[in-house]
Each structure stands twice: as structure tokens, then as C-alpha cells.
Amino acid sequence: MFDTLSDRLGGVFDKLRGRGALKEQDVRDAMREVRIALLEADVALPVVRRFVDQVTELAVGQSVLKSVTPGQQVVKIVNDALVEMLGGEQTVGLELDHVPPVVILMVGLQGSGKTTTTAKLAKLLKEKQGKKAMMASLDVNRPAAQEQLAVLGEQVGVATLPIIAGQQPVDIATRALQSARLQAVDVLLLDTAGRLHVDDQLMAEMKAVAAIASPKETLLVVDSLTGQDAVNVAQSFAGQVDLTGVILTRMDGDARGGAALSMRAVTGKPIKFAGTGEKLDAIEPFHPSRVAGRILGMGDIVSIVEKAAATIQEDEAERMAARMAKGQFDMNDLRMQLKQMQNMGGLGALAGMMPGMKKAKAAMQSSGMDDRVLLRMDAIIGSMTPKERQRPDLLNAKRKIRVANGSGTQVQDVNKLLKMHQEMERAMKQIKKMGGIKGLGALFG
Ligand code: GDP
Ligand code: MG
Predict the structure, then answer these.
(1) Interval 158-212: pLDDT, tens
(2) Is ipTM strictly over 0.90?
(3) Pairing status of strand 187-191 against strand 271-275
(4) 250 assigned binding-site residue
(5) Which atom of ligand 1 is nearest to the CA of 142?
(6) Would you say 252 is a known binding-site residue?
(7) Residue 157 and residue 123 share a domain
(8) pTM to 2 decimal places
């Protein structure tokens, strides 16, 4: 069916295997593939453009973990950005905190799944939240639309407003509110009429109903299979009524979920639920991470990369722990740390990693040092003899001049490095005192 994004990126990045940081041109090549993947998943073009620009900026310069390919790493970066754009890790429920009856207004085009979703929500509210719900259909256009809701109401065991022929939507809404108050209903769901296309009469009707019913939630129901069109629909509705959320239906179909990204980007409102079938319990909270995976069609690349990141931290933590247990921290250790700093994105990425490093970073910044300094320090250590690296106290004035000349630096640079080593060594000794391995575990955890 589709090439997965990781297949696509594999080609782009094969030549790159094992290189340090993601270069701008490589990221741009990868983003071309990401762009195609998003368009294939039916994300709207303007949303794709914006997304690709943002992620390009984010990815350039990030270091590549040793046990994954750059392509996999880019997939992870793209995935994380997608999840973020889809609303983060949290699911968002209904806002019901209000004097009852709390009104939920369902809006959307004809056939999007409004009536079905209204009944699904009523069932959910009744069974999962113990609410007394009531439903009313304001659809006076489609023949038998009100009867359709009544039938669904019977199926889920939720009352529907008795039908009075000839009433207009605003009158029905008024009657529904009165009835809900009389019967001490907690939540009143109003199912509105749809149209095949957005039109002025539909919008005017919706606004009039919203004005008298003061809905706490106005939920836009969108068919996820409509893809690109969904954006125009969302834009029209969002411009006319105060949407509070979106529900995507037919997520059980073969849509890849691109509509979700578009919806979120265009309305700025959370996607609260996903409809996953015709049955009345086929509705679930919207999970951004699941949908992100589906949009990219990338299986479990994300978890592979997450595992790699965790493994590296563990390797490093174990190695350091062993050294620290002996209270050791020589120039070789410092050199490792400098390398890691570079891999982790330079000085900027350092804060919060380790207390000793934090202090060293502050010292380096206050003395006007930047990331080029990391390379210079590496050169200085490279010019030391193995013995000097293990025992920096051997570095007297004469040796310092030799090291400075060998690394193309000044003696004062050598002194700065020695000072920094001393500070870090002190921090390491402190960590040892704090409980060694256990203390370190806490730092890395
Ligand atoms: P409305 O015109 O917006 O009220 O749409 P309806 O609620 O009448 O739904 C139109 C059709 O879509 C019906 O046949 C529903 O069973 C179907 N439908 C609604 N939601 C879903 C869903 O999440 N998945 C699937 N497969 N079908 C759905
Ligand atoms: Mg309907």
C-alpha cells in the first residue's frame, strides 16, 4: 500500500550512517520524504508546509545516537513534533463543570457522523460517568432525522426529546432545555442539521441555537476520510461558532489520520474523541501518539530510538559509576565528557544533565566560551602525554607551554582547562560521597 516513512528515509540516509550530527542539507532531503508521507496521509498542504519548516529547524544540528540510523532519528524527531502538534500525550475529555443541564452542541456536515456520535457520547456519559443524559435532534431538514436519533436513544437507553412536527431548530432547542431542567438532566446533547456543504443558512441556524442554549461544548464532527476537504469545513465552522473541540469519525477506515493534524492546526482546538466504527460503543479518547504513528506509518521506529537513547545513558552511567566508585576523574574522563557535550548538542544542551557539568558550563559561559571551545579543549588534551592525562598535576609551566604549542593554543587556555577539570573532579568526589552509584542513578534518572 504505502511505503513507510522509514523505508523512504532509509535511502536518503544510507550514505550518512554513523556520522555525528544531522546536517541541514540531509535534513532537507529527509523532509522531502516527510512531506510526501504527510500529503499521502491527507494532511492539508498549508499545514504540511508549516510543519516541515518547524521540524527542519528543530532537527538540524541534532546528534545521531550510535545505535540507530540518522533516518530513524529523523523519524523520531518528526514523530515527537507530530504528537506535540496533535496536542501532546494527554487525552482531553469533555468539559462538564457547569450548572446542569450542561449543553453539548454537535455541529458538522451532513453524513459526518453527528447523529451517531451524539448517541455514542450519550452512552459514554451514562455508562462511564454516571450522568443523566438527554438528546434532542434539531435536524428538521432530513426526513426522519429526528426518528433516527430516537431509535439510537432506545438502543443506548438515553431519553430523547419527544418529536413535535413542524417545529424549527430554535424552538426545539428551547423545549429541550426546559425539558432537561424539569427532569434534572445532567447533560443535554443537541444534534444539529448538517448540509452537504457549508452554507449561510446552516451557520445562521447554528448561531441562533448557540445563543439560546449557551453550550459548554461545541464539538465539530469531521469525517477523517474527507482529508483535504476537512480543512475547508473546519475553517468555515471555526470562523462562525466558538468551537471547543473536534471529533474525528471513521478512524476505523483506511484514512491515515492526516485530517487530525489539519483539524488541530486550523481550529487550534483539541481533538477529543475518535469514532472507530458504526457500533454505538465505537468511540475512544483521541490519542495523539497513536495517530502520529499512523500518519507516518512507521511501526515502532520511535520505540527503537527511545530504547537506544536509554541504553546509551545506561552504558555511560555504568562506566562513570565504576570510575566514580574509585573517586577517579582524569583528563581522559574529561575528554569523554567534552565529546558527549558535543554529541548532546553542545553547551546549550547541557544544563540539567549533571551538577558538576552545570557548574562547569556556567564557568565556561561567564568566561565567554562557546562550542568551538569544546574542540579546542579536545586538542589540548590530545597534546598531553598519556601520563599527563592521568595525572594533570604533573603539568608544570614548561609542560604547559609544550601542550599549548602542540594544540595551537595559549598557556592560559591550558590553565582554564585544568581549572575546569579540578572543578569537575571536585563535583565527582562529592557525588561519590553522596552515595556513588546510587546517587548517580538519581542524577541520570
Ligand atoms: P450525520 O449526517 O452527520 O448525522 O451522520 P450519521 O450519524 O447519520 O452517520 C452517517 C453514517 O456514518 C452512518 O451510517 C453511521 O453509521 C456512519 N458512521 C458514523 N461514525 C462512524 C465511524 O466512526 N465509523 C464508521 N465506520 N462509520 C461511522
Ligand atoms: Mg444526523
Answers:
(1) 999 999 988 999 999 999 999 999 999 999 999 998 776 667 888 888 899 999 9
(2) yes
(3) unpaired
(4) yes
(5) 2
(6) yes
(7) yes
(8) 0.68
